[in-house]
Amino acid sequence: MKIHFCIILYLLTHIDIDFENIYSGKENFLFEKWPFLIPKLLTLMHTNIKDSNSRELLKKLCNQNSEIDLVYVYSKNTATNSKRIIKTSIAGARNSFLLLCANTSDLYTKIQNKVDSYYEKKQTLQLLIWIIGDEYMDSKEFFIYYFNTYYKFPNIVKAVDLCFKIFNYPIQSELAWTFLQKYFYDIHTEFDVKSSALISLMSDLSN
Questions:
Q1: What superkingdom heads the lineage (predicted)?
Q2: 13 belongs to a structural domain
Q3: Contact of 26 with 185, CB cutoff 8 Å
């Protein structure tokens, strides 16, 4: 497999054009709404997060106001036992949303291992966000692996935006992606996962 980095402008432009053709006027909703979500979500997290590691991350997040930390804490707390979705652990939900790598060499190795594993199971590897750093708190590099190509992004929000626009949601983190779809992009379909927790979250954030 040939491994290389590439300029993402061409890809992003064409994906945005296709997305706008289908969902006119909604292509920039994530970027426009993101700053307003953070204070609301932090307030809810203070009350609802029970996992000790996530609560510790939340304390640091409040001090640093880091986008990557918010995505990480949120993705860890979207595991669900919905009948439509397989019951998954917090770690399983998180790892289908984003993964941490120590360096680029580790990135290549982990992606190749995942590709090989999915190939053996005759499954398709869905997109997820790969982060390089010693820990989630200090990550500065963000990548998406797509059709044998590594795309680098300037921040976590742009990586999330691209993933949302071009892939089918992984089962383990379907609830998290459905929240992004409904809350940020205001897209609602008959195929959306049904979840009382999601309905409650949407209601709380709308207040």
A1: Eukaryota
A2: no
A3: yes
CA dist., res. 25 & res. 16, Å (int): 11
**pLDDT tens digits for 100-115?**
899 999 999 998 998 8
2 pLDDT tier (thresholds 50, 70, 90): very low
Find out whether 75 and 173 touch, Cβ atoms under 8 Å.
Answer: yes
Classify 183 in phi/psi space as left (phi over 0), alpha (psi -120 to 50) or beta.
alpha
For 147-207, give the secondary structure using H, E and C.
CCEEEEECCHHHHHHHHHHHCCCCHHHHHHHHHHHHHHCCCCCCCCCCCHHHHHHHHHHHC
Inside any domain, residue 19: no
Residue 185 located in a structural domain: yes
Please tell me the distance from the alpha carbon of residue 64 to that of residue 67, in angstroms, as a whole number: 9
Q: For 53-94, what is each residue's pLDDT tens digit?
A: 666 666 665 655 555 445 555 555 554 444 444 445 556 666
pTM for this entry: 0.65
What single letter denotes the amino acid at residue 165?
A: K
Residue 109 has phi, psi (to 5 degrees) of: -65, -45
User: Structurally, how many domains does the chain consist of?
Assistant: 1
How many other CB atoms are there within 10 angstroms of residue 143's CB atom? 21
* Residues spanned by the domain of 183: 26-206
- Tokens standing for 13? 């432009």
Domain membership of residue 5 (yes or no) is no
